[in-house]
Write a structure and sequence with these properties.
9 helices, three-stranded antiparallel beta sheet, alpha/beta, single chain
Length: 237
């Protein structure tokens, strides 16, 4: 299986990443990526982001599963989309058709140019006085977003960060070298809808964890766009 890895050493994106720090945690993350336990459905690919800078911190791994056929049909004008545009787009998907007047009352940014860019990219359309988002099946190629927090010992700290990651991820996990003997970790993780990966335990029961629907927020959209931009950049080489 082909995996694209994007980090501080390899990125053509308008994004920032934390540089990898040598140590047992980094070694564990590298082993996890190499063994790649994440299942990728037929017709999809996997792109892994290493410690991207987000508003909520630096998740160790963000693994994006995306549908190739959907992404191939993206309009090239998507390259002009700005981060603030995606906030508007996500609101439209959440609230439904909305007028420019209402959008101006919500956002401080210049709404009209953003709407023009989104329309040119075939991500929304103007119907009467309303702006209507185009179907997710055409505009959102991402199928799953796994956010993974790695910790050598502090599983409580990992769970706290993993819970924060649910604002953009469909699946939020912690990664540990091994499970503690107590069942407390799994009980707390299940209560937070957080999954658990363990390097030494081949079977970890996460059957109660169901993925969140995507897109969760504008950041889900941003990962979708970053994957596409990286693919376009690779094709041009």
């Amino acid at each position: 299986m082909s995996i694209s890895i994007i980090d501080s050493n390899k990125s053509n994106l308008r994004a920032s990443f934390r540089k990898q720090r040598p140590g047992p945690e980094t070694d564990m993350v590298e082993q996890f990526i190499e063994e790649s336990p994440i299942i990728v459905p037929s017709g999809c690919r996997l792109t892994i982001f290493r410690e991207p800078r987000l508003e909520s911190g630096f998740p160790d791994i963000v693994a994006v599963i995306w549908h190739k056929a959907t992404m191939r049909k993206f309009n090239p004008d998507r390259a002009n989309i700005k981060r603030s545009d995606l906030r508007i787009l996500h609101l439209l998907h959440q609230s439904g058709p909305t007028t420019s007047v209402k959008l101006r009352s919500i956002f401080n940014c210049r709404v009209d140019p953003a709407l023009e860019r989104l329309e040119a990219a075939n991500m929304l359309r103007h119907v009467g006085s309303n702006w209507v988002p185009c179907a997710l099946s055409r505009t959102f190629a991402t199928r799953r977003i796994y956010a993974i927090e790695a910790k050598i010992s502090n599983w409580r700290g990992a769970l706290e960060q993993a819970f924060l990651n649910t604002w953009f991820a469909s699946d939020s996990y912690i990664l540990l070298p091994k499970l503690p003997r107590s069942r407390q970790l799994l009980e707390v993780a299940n209560s937070l809808c957080i999954g658990v990966f363990s390097m030494s335990d081949t079977m970890v029961d996460n059957s109660e964890i169901q993925p969140w629907n995507l897109p969760r927020s504008y950041m889900s959209w941003l990962f979708n766009e970053w994957v596409w931009l990286e693919e376009i950049s690779e094709q041009r080489k």
